[in-house]
Specification:
about 160 residues, mainly alpha, elongated
């Protein structure tokens, strides 16, 4: 039984996964939501930092509140760093998905070209001689670079 055509086992993301454009749109939407969450987490991290560093206990030195706040700040910083890596990974995934479809198309074309090349090698076509253009004097033969072939052949006339 083929699970791809089974209507009882239909997943809404199956259609998204089958199209690189739909995958890119879906990942962009997820990334947009995560970036909004990231803004809120940055604000939360800042407000938490301000509050925790202002929380002093009697007998504290000036740096004790900061030392108590550091593990919380570090944890929130790690969450933000992981969120940034996640959003970068989503973007990279969309590019890789598109590159996969292009590679599939190019593989098919490449195989066709290799097969044609193999056929040409097995059955070589006889080469035809190029037609000689009519010569109109000695000047038409010397259309390209001409004259001395080295500095020593130039003589005094070029100096």
């Amino acid at each position: 039984m083929n699970s791809n055509n089974d209507p009882t086992n239909h997943s809404p993301l199956r259609d998204v996964a089958q199209s690189p454009e739909a995958t890119a749109r879906y990942l962009a939407d997820v990334q947009r939501v995560l970036l909004d969450i990231g803004k809120n987490l940055e604000t939360l991290a800042h407000e938490t930092r301000v509050h925790l560093r202002d929380t002093h206990v009697e007998g504290d030195r000036w740096y004790h509140a900061r030392l108590r706040a550091m593990p919380v700040e570090k944890a929130l910083g790690n969450v933000l760093k992981n969120l940034n890596h996640l959003t970068e990974g989503l973007e990279k995934s969309a590019y890789k998905r598109r590159a996969h479809d292009e590679a599939v198309v190019n593989t098919e074309k490449g195989r066709r070209e290799k097969e044609l090349e193999r056929q040409r090698k097995k059955n070589p076509q006889p080469l035809q001689a190029a037609p000689n253009p009519p010569q109109q004097g000695a000047q038409s033969q010397n259309l390209g670079y001409g004259g001395p072939t080295s500095l020593y052949d130039m003589g005094r006339e070029s100096a």
